[in-house]
Amino acid sequence: MSTDKTKRAIQHLKELSYLPFTAEQIEFIYDSASFKQRIIELIRQAESRIYITALYWQNDEAGQQILNEIYCAKQKKPALDVKILVDWHRAQRNLLGAEKTKTNSDWYNDERLKNEDLKFDSMFFGVPVNTREVFGVLHIKGFVFDNTVLYSGASINNVYLNQLNKYRYDRYHLINNSELADSLVNFIQHHLLAENVVLPLDVTNRPKTKEIRQSIRTFRKNLATKGQYKLQNTVSFKEELSISPLFGLGNSRNILNRTIKDLFRIVEKNLVICTPYFNFPRSLQLEIQSLLKKGKQIEIIVGDKVANDFYIPPSQPFKIAGALPYLYEHNLRLFSQKFEQYIKNGQLMVRTWKDGENSYHLKGIWVDDTYILLTGNNLNPRAWWLDAENGLLICDPKRELLAQFHKELDYIRRHTQILKHYSEVEDINQYPLPVQKLLKKFARLKADKLVKMIL
Questions:
Q1: pLDDT surpasses 80 at 154
Q2: Domain PLD phosphodiesterase spans what residues (predicted)?
Q3: 155 and 58 in contact (C-beta within 8 Å)?
């Protein structure tokens, strides 16, 4: 049975569309400060187009600085085509737990009004992936500057861009390939901007979500069934260095989800996984279990609870969202306990990342030094079922990128500790009292599975 699954996985990977590229066309960037600098450089160099998709663009110092660069570029080159797509819901609310003030979309509008003498068209657009944020957001990644793709799971704000000497660690890759850039832009134009529910955010009058609810449902259905990247001048699987852009929404026809499972199924020697929120979908847990039984090596790099972006120190007032890092850590303890024998014999290596007050946001998969997946997908049930996700699958049969693969992993591992036994992970009874009460209440009401599904 497992042999049949492997054959089907290989066949599916062969059916994907791949673009050829060279090792010289990709640059691995290893820290958030350099990522920010490259964004600024690419904005200043852009001649024809800037297309950005991210979960959000925050009204803070880094957000203002990058937006100023965008307006400056537009002022110098009025014909520059700028489209910035963020999640519709996220843009129109305040940060969790923050006081109600102007939202990011209000700020986008204010900034456009400041530059109204330039008569620019709208630049910010909101994408409503579902009628409520909790049931799905825009989690598509990728910045396009002319023919260059800058791909990262990061959004635009202070911590992602290391603005105030505090950072949220992600992955960053720059790929100079005109056909890949065209593919990402064409997807945005035909599957997002062409829809009647993807509306400008930098305007005064925006419709209420309830007014477009039925249109959002139709949009989600169409995006899930028809949304996919189109490529020209493709090459065959596993013949040369190549890359395949992937999209996924929902679980029935989700090419990205299927590709992730296929990557797990073709592992010959080793698999490396990065995720910030330890909450694998059941299907991936089963694949991991199968690989371990076959004797494969697996390394999982996950953020320590204090490196989670929802973490609240015990010295500060407790908020419900602050329980999430503990919930993920509890998942890690149960997982490590279940697979204790593999941790003990060294076949399963679990690393937890922590660097002071900084946070961890890495996602991705490495297989046998031959395949690497760049993605914003958190490899959790929410990404699997609810959010609109994408990724870039790199196939490197001649291992031309091996040195950069290893260098990236070495950087990621720098602030990690290897888990030697599940007991090194705190138990619920060691958590702050408010966290204990909430997690035990979830379990008592059997609500923990629902919480894990949507968060």
A1: yes
A2: 356-383
A3: yes
pTM, two decimals, is 0.95
Give the whole-angstrom CA distance, residue 404 versus residue 27: 9
Superfamily of domain 248-454: Endonuclease Chain A (3.30.870.10)
pLDDT in tens, 189-226: 999 999 999 999 999 999 999 999 999 999 999 999 99
Q: Which residues make Cβ contacts (< 8 Å) with residue 294, sequence separation at least 6?
A: 2
* Start-end of CATH 3.30.870.10 domains in the chain: 20-226, 248-454
Q: Which fold has domain 20-226?
A: Endonuclease; Chain A (3.30.870)
Q: What pLDDT does residue 99 have?
A: 56
Angle of helix 2-15 relative to helix 255-265, nearest 10 degrees, comes to 130
Does 69 or 252 have the greater pLDDT score? 69
Nearest alpha-carbon partner for 97 in 312, 315, 319, 305: 319
Nearest CA to 303 among 122, 134, 169?
A: 169
389 noted as active-site residue: yes
CB burial of 153-178 (b: ≥16 within 10 Å; e: otherwise) equals bbbbbbbbbbbeeebbbbbbbbbbbe
CA–CA gap between residue 156 and residue 285 (Å, rounded)? 32
Among candidate residues 60, 389, 396, 408, the one labeled active-site is 389
Q: Characterise 119 by phi-psi region: left (phi > 0), alpha (psi -120 to 50), beta (else).
A: left
Known active-site residue 170: yes
Kindly name the residue from 170, 182, 202, 304 that is annotated as catalytic.
170
Q: Angle CA(236)–CA(226)–CA(56) in degrees, nearest 5?
A: 95
Question: What local confidence, expressed as pLDDT, does residue 1 receive?
Answer: 52
Q: How far apart are CA 8 and CA 372, in angstroms?
A: 19
User: Active site residue: 60, 87, 111, 139, which one?
Assistant: 139
Question: Max CA-CA distance within the chain?
Answer: 67
Whether 110 sits among the annotated catalytic residues: the reply is no
Whether the predicted pLDDT of 446 surpasses 90: no
Among residues 89, 361, 396, 408, the one annotated as catalytic is 361
Instruction: Report d(CA 350, CA 275) in Å as an integer.
Output: 11
Residue 281 burial (CB < 10 Å; 0-12/13-18/19+)?
buried
Tell me which residue of 109, 340, 378, 91 sits closest to 260, measured CA to CA. 378
pLDDT tens for 258-293 read 999 999 999 999 999 999 999 999 999 999 999 999
Q: What is the mean pLDDT of residues 45-59?
A: 98
**Using CA atoms in the order 278, 284, 285, 291, what is the torsion angle rounded to 10 degrees?**
-120
